[in-house]
């Protein structure tokens, strides 16, 4: 059976890629090095060909992990990484100055053991550096043969338009799922108009719509979600009530909750890709199997009516993280 593909920078890719962050940070417990490497190989074996990483993930660990797979399978995958959140001097900061970008790209190439990265993102907007300067530097790195395309992450439609005046932007990556609809304000449509692919991270709501969280109190204190408003107190009680209904809806359609979540995001438009992350080979296979499912549009409509910006309680980020993003936001309830 020929599975669907979608275009990213002129290349036909599986619309379900693999977000690799959870192999190195954020969601605990982390997998062993051996298991993570085996998962990456298995992902490629079954059809994944879009692997998403970043310098930040595990402070270099994630790119080093990918290097173990890329040394024998580089030609089988479209690889991405990101710069702009710097940490090399022991402090974490947003820095998209030209000199910093050039240094970061060289480090990514060295760490991953490759001479070319298919897509390189600016991880966040540096409000002290004109976006045109940052994008212009990446355009020079395309000419130098070090990267194939430029991406932006968690940035607004206005920033995307400004960046595009300097050089075409191949992809915008932001959080998008049934319970995070911010890209619908402006970014999705702007991407479509400009010919920019949209890459949705956390398409299963940070695991919530994949059966991954039932009691946030049991999360490891280091887990990123432990500090997120949607996982706390009354917010969680109301949100988990929605999850129970969502799981019943998925079951009625013969789907897992994760499959219904991914199918809904992909159904929103043909320029959208998803990159769910997982440390579970079973979930890796389950996510990919979404492509084989025939889903009644009515089920997708019911899912959207159940879980959306109006029904979910709490902001998607804690206050500190909100300061670092440039995306459009909804007015406080």
Shape: globular
Instruction: Write the H/E string, N to C.
Output: EEEHEHEEEHEHEHEHEHHEHHH
Q: Tell me the name of the CATH homologous superfamily of the domain at 6-208 and 265-293.
A: NADP-dependent oxidoreductase domain
Distance between the termini: 46 Å
Number of strands: 12
Largest sheet strand order = 3-4-5-8-9-10-11-12
Q: Characterize the biggest β-sheet.
A: 8 strands, parallel
Strand content is 5-15%
Radius of gyration: 19 Å
- Residue runs with pLDDT of under 50 for 5 or more positions: none
SS-based class: alpha/beta
What's the pLDDT, averaged over the residues?
97
Under the CATH scheme, the architecture of the domain at 6-208 and 265-293 is: Alpha-Beta Barrel
What's the helical proportion of residues?
25-40%
Number of contiguous helices: 11
CATH topology of the domain at 6-208 and 265-293: TIM Barrel
Q: What is the CATH class of the domain at 6-208 and 265-293?
A: Alpha Beta
Give your account of this protein's structure:
The strands form 3 sheets. Strands 3-4-5-8-9-10-11-12 form an 8-stranded parallel sheet. It is of the alpha/beta class. The chain has helices at residues 33-46, 61-73, 98-112, 131-143, 157-166, 187-194, 233-252, 257-267, 281-289, 297-306, 319-322; strands spanning 6-8, 11-13, 18-19, 50-52, 78-83, 85-86, 93-94, 119-122, 150-153, 171-175, 197-201, 272-274. Helix 1 runs parallel beside helix 9 (281-289) and helix 7 (233-252) runs antiparallel to helix 10. It has a domain at 6-208 and 265-293: NADP-dependent oxidoreductase domain (TIM Barrel), CATH 3.20.20. Helix 1 links the parallel strand 3 (18-19) and strand 4 (50-52). It is globular and about 50 Å long. 45% of the residues are buried. The protein starts with 5 loop residues before the first strand and ends in an 11-residue tail after the last helix.
